[in-house]
Each structure stands twice: as structure tokens, then as C-alpha cells.
Fold these 4 entries.
Entry 1:
Amino acid sequence: MIRIFAIMLSLLLAAPTISASAQAGDNTTNEALADFGNIEPDDELIDVQTITDAMLTTSQKITELGIRFLLNLVVCWILVQFFYFKKSRRRDYYFTFMIFSSAMLMLLYIMGNVSVGVGMTLGLFAIFGVIRYRTETVPIREMTYLFIIIALAAVNGLAPVFQVTDVATNPHYILEMGNVGVLALVNLLIVILILILESVCASNNTTTKLVLYDRIDMIVPEKRAELIADLEKRIGVKINALEIGHVDFLKDSAFIKITYNLEDGETNTINQLTKAKRYTE
């Protein structure tokens, strides 16, 4: 009991000393603030809330959306028109890529400007997943371009275009041309990369074709030369190599994958299709 009373008495005696030290510390802080940036000692410090109070005006929002939408639309049109459609000639995917790109950009732009819960985000991706697995298999080339378009829509829809200025006095947004230039450079690099890869692939004119062959007695290794000669006569191409695939003894047929060279300017866009309903002009 005596020990507790002694501790309390020591604290009471030390209180004036602590108060004086705190007051001296406050005076030192005020003097430092007065010397830093001509801030008055009694002024309130700028906090994070002051910085985030800046809001985009209606004209700035329209300008931002226009820049994002037009840049994304032009770049996707270049990719689809001059790279994808030039070889595939599939108008169904042409329509799909252009609409999907614009819709994805709008979705990501809205999600980036509003507070969206994790549950809603997962629900949106679940919807896309259900749509994906209820449709037919997408070829590899089409799937690659689809992922490129999604990536471009994400970059063009979420990359910063405006930035806050005059934080200390009047925080507001201004259009930062440096951000716009970086965004345009990212899109340009993607276009250049695809241009290089498509040029490299175009230099290799070897392609493949699936053939449903009806003479099943010719697929044995002993008759490989006769098989190649028969296929070249019936298809009209010079075969470089072939592979025997699925064999159906009930229907006396087999799938054969042949490899041959294309003529200059010739394309083969449906080489892996085996059902008529999977091809749409």
C-alpha cells in the first residue's frame, strides 16, 4: 500500500515537468512548421482527405471517356482488320472482337470509377465463364486475339489519364498528356509486336489439313508410299508429311493430318475443322 502511494506521489510531482516538456515540443514543432513552406503554426496540415476531394468535371469525364473509347476502338480495328481478318476472313469473329472490345472497355471503366464489391466482380467473371463453356471450342488463333483485346480494353479502361494538381491550395484534375502518351505507346507496342509475329508466321507457308480418309486398308506402314500418292492425286497438293489419327473400323474411315506448302498469297483458315456447322463465312 505504501509503495502504491509513493508511485502516485511521484507521478503527481512529475506531471508539471511532463507538461512543460510537451509544451516545449509543441513550440518546437510550430517553429519548424513556420520555417517549412511558409505554413502558419496554427494552420491545419493537409491530409489525405483533402487530396481526394478533387472531382472530375462533366466535361473532363466526357473527354476521358472519349480518349479511352476512341483509342481502344482504333487499335482493336487495326488488329482485327489488318492482322486477323486478312488471314482468317471470318466475319463472325470480326463482329465479336469489335463488340467485345468496346463492351469490356465500358465495363472496366465503370468498375474503375465506382465502388464494386468483390462478390459482384466474381459474379461478372462467373457469367463470362458460363458463356464460355456453353459455346463451341474457339480456335487457338481466335482465342489469342480475344485475350489481346481483353488486355487492351483493361489497359485503355483503367490507365490514369488525369492527375491531381494544386494539392495545397485548390486540388483539381488536369489532363496529363504524358499519361496519354504512355497509354498510346503501350497500344503501339502491342500493334508492333503482332505485326512482327504475323510477318514471321507468314514467312513460313507450311500448313496442315485434316482429311477423313475412306480407304482404311491403306493406313498400314507398309503402304505409306501408296497412301501419300493417293492423297496427292485426290487432294492436289504435294504432301510433306502425314499423321494417322482416329481410326473407325465400323465405318472403314480414319482421320489423317497432312502437312503441305501453300502457294504465295494462299491461305488456309479452316484446316482443322471437321464439321460444317463450325464454319461461318
Entry 2:
Amino acid sequence: MTGFAWIFPVLAAAGLAFGIWQRCLLRRTLRRLNAMLDRAIAGGFSEELFDESELSALETRMSRFLRGSSLALKKARGEQEAVKTLISDISHQTRTPIANLMLYASLLSEGDLTGRQKEQAAALLAQSEKLSFLIQALVKASRLETGIVASAPAVNPVEPLLKHAAAQAGQAAAEKRIRLAALPFQGDAAFDPRWTAEALFNVVDNAVKYTPSGGQVTISARSFDFFCRVDVEDTGPGIPEEEQGKIFNRFYREKASGGTEGLGLGLYLAREILTRQGGHIRVVSSPGKGCVFSLYLPREIFQHR
């Protein structure tokens, strides 16, 4: 047996050499894969291997994938540009006719009219204003959805946001003899002031619309570790549980809305605005006990992707 003792060191050396060779081969393969990915990220990927190896097959598949992805990206960008142009055209082309319609309806209502004619002129003006609001809301929604406009959140105090929403909805609340209050709050959150003000106003306006005369709408806020929660509480009729998941959809109107004016876009826009800032919105309600809409604003800036 001693004559074969030399075999074991030779086998061990061969095994070690084979292991080193495999490791070097693996490292070389990983370097080539990293180089392929670097070229792909830089947009200059091209096939370099043209043999029957697995690495060559991988390059071929990656090349096909990247070409397809590039074409899809170009198509998506082209479609986005087309939508952007369409939205711009709609906004531009409808602005003047609607403004003229509202102007002449207003002038007509101030003329020497009979009672019936005054009612008709008032209805014409109201419908013109509704059409103007609809076009503006649709343009805003489309711009948000297509990324034409983006929110720019920054850390801001929350209390001015609450007061501004109360001031905007103050006249409508006063006309219905609704008590509208924004409670004091000391705290910050990360949000885009202009867009978030619109989201909160849409929720407050919705609360005022559905709260009966003599009711109350309260705007308050509370800080948590990661979010600041803004609550809009009303004493309205409430929302059935089966409808609560639908009210944030575009153009959805509650079955019990009756003759309440609305287009079904306010809550949808509020959800879209908050989502793009890393926040969200929810509602807690039951029929006959009013609603509490909660808008969650992140405490730190969220980078939307």
C-alpha cells in the first residue's frame, strides 16, 4: 500500500487545482454578466458571444428582452405624449367657450326678465359652472394619472392646511347653517401644499354637501410615528358598508345621494393625490351616524416611482 501513497497527495492537489479553476471560471462568468448588465443599464448592450455556450445563449435572450423593453418604453412614451397633447388641447379649446357661456348667462340673468325667464337663466348659469368644474376636474385627474404633473412634497405645518379648507368651504356651510370648525393642531407632515389642499377641500366639500342643515363638520389632526392623520368628521346620513369601497372610484355616486349636486370626482381626486405622496385615505361610517374621512399624510418625504 505504501507504493500507492503518492496517489492521495496527487488527487488532493488535482482536486484543489480543479476547485481553483472552477472558482476562476465562475468569477470570469460573473464579471461578464456584470459587464452585460452595465451595458444594458447604459443602453449600449450588444451581443459579444456567438458560440454554443450557455453564456452566449443568455446574451441572446437578454438582447431580445432589452430590444422588446426598449420598444415598449418608446411606445409608452409616445402614448403619454399623445395624451399630454390631447389634455392640453381639451383644456385650451374649452376654456374660452365655457367662459363666454358663463359670462353671457350671467349677463342674461341681470336683464329685464320675467320670473320664468330668470329661472331659466339661473339654470343655464348653474349648468355652465358645472360644466366648467367637470372639465377642470377631468383635466386634473388625467394629468395626475399620466404623470404630466407631479406633486412636490415638503415638510410643512398641518394647521394652515386645515384652516384653509375650512375657509374654502365656509360659505357653503353657512348657507346650509352647518357648523364648520378646524381644530388647532401643532405638528408637521410631508405634503405638497397646493395638491393636498385640494384633496382636503374635496373631502370637506363632500362632507358639507351630504350633511343636513343644522349639522356639524369638524376638521382635526393627530400625529403618529410615521403619519399625520387628518380627520373630517360629519353628522350626515353615513355610508353603508357595501358602498364604502366604491366611493373613491371615478364618477361613483352613492345610491342615497338623492338630489345632492356632485360629479363623483372629488373623492377620487383626493385618493389619487394622497397616493402619489405616499399617503392614503379611508372612511369609517355607518348609516345614520355620519362619516369620518381620514387622510394619512407621511411624516417624511415619499419618493413616488
Entry 3:
Amino acid sequence: MAVYREPISKKCKSLGISPAVLGYTHKKETRRKFGAGSNTRKKVSEYGLQLKEKQKLKFIYGVLEKQFYRYYEIAIREEGVTGENLLLLLESRLDNVVYRMNMAITRREARQLVGHGHFTVNGKRVDIPSYRVKVGDVVALHEGSKKSAKFEQIIELTHGRTAPQWLDVNREARTATVVRKPQRDELDFEIQENLVIELYSK
């Protein structure tokens, strides 16, 4: 799991993303506008723009370079647009699904919860955050974790947060079924994935 020791708000500002993208909605972190930061004062090279978009994706999903490059290699081998394939692979991670089904406040927390064995896929406990879910898979909170005060708090704090349409979420049962593949326009952040592909294609 990627470990970022730099303050979340500072990292978000440098990448031009809102902490809300990661699930952080504290007033002190969202009251400022997160734009392009100090980079607006100087011209950024094409390489710099490409690198920033890659860093943004890696940071949002919490993956390190080696694993991220493996996703790229898989994306170029699959049919379709490589950039969209890459995004699909990242969205299909189990930790991201847990976050998107609102069973974790942040993606970082989702990675920890999955790693601690709190979730099952099709009835079997899975503790690998990078596990790739498929259409038809049912992700559920493990029976032994349903009465945990931790998850009661999460349910309360994520109340009103919507899940993407590619997930059929049952909040009462603490489950989510993957009904179809994620679509590009269902991301919860802005990204120019073509720049990432161009960077790796050089």
C-alpha cells in the first residue's frame, strides 16, 4: 500500500485536486479553493503536465509506481481506449469499490479496512486491496464486522453520499453488486488520462 507522509491538504493543493475527492470533507481542508496552486505562476512543460496527471491518479488510488505501471501494461493489451482501460482497472480495485459503496470514509481508510479482512467477495473473505472485482461480484461487509461501532460510525458519516450506478448498493445489508463496468463519466474527479498514456508511450 502506498504511504504518503506529506499532509493531505498540501498534496492535494500541489496536484490541483480537492481533498473531497479522497473523502476528506473537514471544513479546514475544503474551505480553500484547490486549483493549480503555485504552478500557475510559471509555464509548465508538456512533460510536467503529463507527470502531474500520473501523480494525481497514483495519489487518488493510493498505488506506487511499480503497480501503477503494471496497470498500464494491462491496459494497453486490452481492447478499447488505453486511457479508459487504465481508469477501469483502478476503479475496479476492491478498496475503491468499498469506498464507492460508502463503507469507508476515504479511499485510504478503505485500503486499511480491506487489508484487515472486513470484506468478502462472493462470500469469501478477501484482504487484498488491489483485488479486481468483476461484473456480477457481490462485495459485502463481513458478518463479524456488521455490529462494529466503527462501521456504524462510517454509515452515519457517509449518509447522503451517493454511489455510482455501476454498483447496486444495499446499505441495510451492507452489500454492493457490480452490475456493469464503470464508465469514464462516472469518475468522481477530473483527469486527463491521455497525458498519462502519452508519458508512458515515449
Entry 4:
Amino acid sequence: MSKVLIVGGGAAGMFASIFAAKNGNEVHVFEKNEKLGKKLFITGKGRCNVTNACDMDTLFASVVTNSKFLYSSFYGYTNQDVMDFFESIGLPLKVERGNRVFPRSDHSSDVIKALEREMKNQGVKIHLYQTVKKVVESEGRFRYLELADGNKIHGDACIITTGGMSYQTTGSTGDGYRFAKALGHTVTDLQPSLVPIETKESFVPELMGLSLRNVQVKILDGKKELYNDFGEMLFTHYGVSGPLIISASAYVGKKLLKGKELKISIDLKPALSEEQLDARVLREFEENHNKQFKNAVGGLFPSKLIPVMIELSGIDPEKKVNIISKKERQNFVYLIKNFEMTLTRLRDFKEAIITNGGIKVKEINPSTMESKLVEGVYFAGEVLDLDALTGGFNLQIAWSTAYAAGSNIW
């Protein structure tokens, strides 16, 4: 039996503690907040998207950074295992659109309560308001934790599950990166991910609050396509957000952080080819042939978008539609299929769902999550250089890596 000290009482820390305790270890969780699972509480807009019920290929394809590293842990503790676990500890689940898995109650607090209940059942000791200042090793082996009050807690193993840099109000302030560096680990460049993006164009604030559904979004670096997907997005006072943009940020963030400007091209009518859309626009014009252009396109766009599209079309708003040339109409059709803006920068960590970057995975054993540099030190969750798309995939990384760490300590 080992004495296992876990730093951080979020998703990965709680999960690791349960499986470390199931192995007969004495387990202590140190959490600097007043309660466990603060970030878990706000995930999935307060409903907690616990995992994704997709097949394994989709699971791996949804990991943006270092998916190969997760081979052992994903197969060692699958998304189905996660669902079975939560059901077995009294948390009924449901599967929604996009295979997203939520508690049937729609309350993230029920996920936290179920985990806390199971921690207590397994005899895990929880220490709240306890800030860990240092993780101390000597001769290549973990020795003790030094707390902010000066206390030293000795143990046989330590699992660091302190999260990343996103949602810093929940306590994710990068402590784990500091501990890792002090132990000799490399921490890759950190940046916000799954985050809204700012745009350059002056018309964007006019569209604030407008949500576009069923649009095709492409992000281009010159002619190179970096991202292409179909779904929903939202305009804000500073730029763009919503599911498509949040996912896109995981792929384009590094380029934006290097100061590169990218183009976003939105197909507002992806269900129609250019020819079909031209016929539709022509029909609108014929039905409104005596009207001015500005009053003849109401059937094509949401009201907030109309003045912007009129302005970008280059067609005189007062012009009667029956004298609009074929060339002008075709340019207008092209604009609808290629509504472009310039992406300038990511919003910061305060608005990011997760962190891109973290402890270099080459320095971690992928089967056990143990450090290759310091015996008895393990890492799990967002503190590692692993990140995925929205839809429950990042929590699956937390559960699988936490299980690997917790269940491999004896």
C-alpha cells in the first residue's frame, strides 16, 4: 500500500483518487479552493458534457494535439467505460446530438456529487483550502508536498492534476506547469484553445448577437485551407464565436498567435450550388422587380445581415432590381457563398475552454502517466500537452489519463 498525494481536486484529480484508493492505497486530495470540481461545475454550460459516445476512430480524430500518446489510456479506459462507471455510481446519463453525453438531470453538480460520494466510499481524504507550494523530489524520486502554510506532507507517490490556464477563476492558474518545470520537465508553449476569435472588419460589431445556423465555414491561410466544417456560429462585438469558431480555434490558434492574419469564408447557403442560388436570387428579384435593391433581399438573410450584405455587394441600394446587371447579380451570389472576414487574434485565457500546450508527453509514460524523469510523480488531465475539440473529448482525456495514473499505483 502506498500513500498517494493528489494535487488538484478537479475532474482528473477526483477520478484518479477513486482508482488509486480502489487499489488499497491511502489517498489524499489537496485542493486550494473551497470545494472540489469548480471547473467541472461550469463545463457544458453548467450541464457537464461528461464524454462522447462515438466510436474509437472518431475519439482519436477529435484529439487535436498528441493523439498517439493517448492510445494506451483511451483503450485502457474507453468512453464506454466512463459511461458505465458513472451509471454504476448512481448518475443516469443521456446521449444528445453529436453523441454528447450528459447527466440525465442536466446538472453538472450531480456529476461532482457522484464523484465525491464515490471518493468518500473509497476512503479518499479531501483537504480543501490547501495550496500546494512545491512538489519536492530527491535522488530522482518523489518525497513530499510543501504546502503554503509550511507543512510538509510526505508520500510514496504524487499525481499532479492541476489543470491548465483556462477559466482561471476556478483556480487553473498554471501551478502544475511550475511544479513540472521544477522537477525538470519541459512545458511547451501555452495558448488559449476552444476560444472565440477577433476580427478586423468594422461591420462585425453591427452583427453582434446574430447567430448563423447551417453555414459552411472555411478558414484560409492564403490558398491553404486550415479548417472546414458545417454548423453554427455567432457574431460578437469583437468578432466571431459559437461552436464552429470554438472548434476552429484549436486548429488555427498557433498561426494567429504568430501574428498571422487569416481569412474566414462563410457560405451562407451551403445547401445550394452557385447556379441554384443564382436562380433563387433571380426569383427574388423577379418577385420584387419594381423595388429598390435594399428592399428586395429581405427573404435571403436575417434582418441584421441585410445592410452589411447590401454594402459589401457594391450594388447601389437605391437601384431598382430590374436594372441590376447579370454580372452584379453573379457577384452578389458569389458574396453569399463567400462572405469573408479577417481573423486577427484569439481571445485570452479568461474565455478559453481549455489550454493548448502543457507538459511534454515524451517525458511521460503513456501507459501509466508516470514521469520518466522522477519516480513516483504522475500527471493527468489538462496539465499535459493534450487537447481536443468540444463535445466531451477533453473530459474523456481527463478520465482516461486519470484512470491510468490512479490504477497504476500500488
